[in-house]
């Protein structure tokens, strides 16, 4: 999968893309990331990318020309992308959406800053507009990393088979994860639950499912 992130702060995104699961995916050749600063597509010598809103009001609006020129240049080079715009006005991001996005060969993630995008950016091209939650961040950079990580970790070969299979079952059942334990067996007087030590795989599976259901009922009854 080829992921292109369009941002005014590419240097803020670079270290995270090299770390942990995202770094492993690119080392394995499963994912490739390109960071593009759309300020490079500004048409004036001050490298302007934003301007004051028509109709007045606070903040600045991202101009259409640099962003559209940048996207069109990328698509001439690589072919078309599934285009994603990160804004608080988008559809809520979910595990199911992450799974759907794994179907695309090329993703383009547009990170906004300031008050928002000139509406003609939305009109001129087709965008999948995504919000990572009902709160407002200073820009789309963290949301773009959230989406990238949620999608890339699902690509075949990125995680161990065992982990992904286990997660799938919870995911499809709409349940929160069950509690986990590792050594020591007793920590500050707290013991690891007996079923996990029994060696009886059916009993372990039953215990985990019961725990996951109880936890989901208490914490997230909406699921
Ligand atoms: N940009 C600013 N806030 C955001 C959010 N909650 N989701 C996606 N993009 C954003």
UniProtKB/TrEMBL annotation:
Listed InterPro entries: Alpha/beta_knot_MTases, tRNA_m1G_MeTrfase_C_sf, tRNA_m1G_MeTrfase_TrmD, tRNA_m1G_MTases_N, tRNA_MeTrfase_TRMD/TRM10
PANTHER family: TRNA (GUANINE-N(1)-)-METHYLTRANSFERASE
Entry EC no(s): 2.1.1.228
Membrane-spanning ranges: none
Domain (tRNA methyltransferase TRMD/TRM10-type): residue spans on this chain: 1-223
GO cellular component terms given for this protein: cytosol
Keyword vocabulary terms for this entry: Cytoplasm, Methyltransferase, S-adenosyl-L-methionine, Transferase, tRNA processing
Residue numbers binding S-adenosyl-L-methionine: 112, 132-137
Family: Belongs to the RNA methyltransferase TrmD family.
Subcellular location: Cytoplasm
Protein's GO biological process: tRNA N1-guanine methylation
Summary of the function given for this chain in its UniProt record: Specifically methylates guanosine-37 in various tRNAs.
Oligomer status and interactors: Homodimer.
Sample GO molecular function, one term: tRNA (guanine(37)-N1)-methyltransferase activity
Name of protein: tRNA (guanine-N(1)-)-methyltransferase
Enzymatic reactions: guanosine(37) in tRNA + S-adenosyl-L-methionine = N(1)-methylguanosine(37) in tRNA + S-adenosyl-L-homocysteine + H(+)
